[in-house]
Every structure is written in C-alpha cells, then in structure tokens.
Amino acid sequence: MNLPNKLTVSRFALTAAFLAAIFSEIRFHETIALAFFLAASITDYYDGMIARRDKLITNFGILMDPLADKILVCSAFIAFVGRDLMPAWMVVVIVARELAITGLRLLAASKNVVLAAEGYGKHKTVSQMVAIISILVQASHEQWGAWAEGIFGFRILGTPWMTTFTELSKWLAVMFTAISGAMYLWRNRHLYLHDL
Question: I need a labelling partner for 115 at 20 to 30 A (CA). Which of 23, 39, 64, 98 fits?
C-alpha cells in the first residue's frame, strides 16, 4: 500500500477517534476531538498532493479518498446534532446532498462516465471544513485558558465574535452545500432523467 493510500486509510481511524473523543466525558474531550479532526483534514490534503506529485494515483485511492472525506464530514455534522451544537435540519441538508451526489457518481460509473469535481464543490468543501472547525473551536476554546477567552470571546456589539462567526459558518456551509448539490444534479441530469 503506497503512502497516499495509507493516509486515506488513516482518515477512517482518525474519524473513529474523533467520534470517540467528542462523545466521551473525559476532560478536554472537545479539544481532543478538534485535534483529531485537524489531523484527519491534514491527511486529506497530503494524500491527494502526494498521489498527484509522485504519480501514485490508484483505483483504491480514487474510490476511497472521497469516501473517507464524506464519512469524516458527515460523521462530524451528525455528531454535532447529538451534542446539540447544530440543528438537525441543517445536517439533513448536508448529508442528503452528499448521498445524492455519491449516488449520481455511482450511476455515472455504471455508464462508464467519470464525473469531475466542480468549482462549487470545492467551495462547499471549504465551507464545511470551516464550519466544523469553528464549531469545535467554539465548543472547546474555554478549556484553553484566559488567553483563548481573550481572543475568541472578544465581543462585537455585545456578542463574542466567535459565536457570530460560527453561526455564519453553519449557514454558509448549508447554503454552499445545497447550491452545489442542486447545480451538480442539474448539470448531469441526462444521466438519470433517461432512466425515469
């Protein structure tokens, strides 16, 4: 197994560790969950970069890399519902989009068509990562001491800026997820309308 594929597989393990941490009751569990999520995000960046740079792209990587990404992101958002950190309806929109696009890609593959990622999909991914990290920072920064409270608890118009930023990031993630999903389904409608 080459290095990019090892990094992809490690993301599954880091996702499990993230879930174990966020649902545990040990001290600083939100901070530990944040560390696991950041580590998983770093593996996502490096596995693709190394695979392209060293020409180590494999069928395993093509299949498992996006799957590992979706499991990590969906697991985080679903966990946030369980921890009352995000409304369930927002997570339903995000998870439904990921399942719909995965289904469309499987349908395309069955017809020997490869669907490339689009620009809106990249915006969606960035917005989701920012939302997840900001939610975890919001939930954990009070554990880091007075310096963190001074930075993340700084008030603008009577509300800590981190609270406002986190709420905004949730809405942006849902918006980009819904828009990118709708556009992707519309642009590739020829794949499924013929079978209806």
Answer: 39
On average, the pLDDT of the chain sits at 89
**Residue 35, pLDDT above cutoff 70:** yes
Between CA 189 and CA 104 the distance in angstroms is 9
Residues 6+ apart with CB under 8 A from 67: none
Report the distance separating Cα 141 and Cα 20, nearest Å: 19
- The three-state secondary structure class of 55 is coil
**What pTM, to 2 d.p., does this model score?**
0.89
Q: Tell me, what CATH number does 189's domain have?
A: 1.20.120.1760
**Tally of domains in the chain:** 1
CA angle centred on 88, ends 125 and 181, rounded to 5°: 35
The predicted-structure confidence for 39-97, as pLDDT tens digits, reads as follows 999 998 888 888 888 888 887 877 788 888 899 999 999 999 999 999 999 999 999 99
Handedness of CA 89, 90, 91, 95 (dihedral sign): positive
Query: Which three-class secondary structure state does DSSP give residue 11?
Result: helix
* 8 Å CB contact between 54 and 47: no
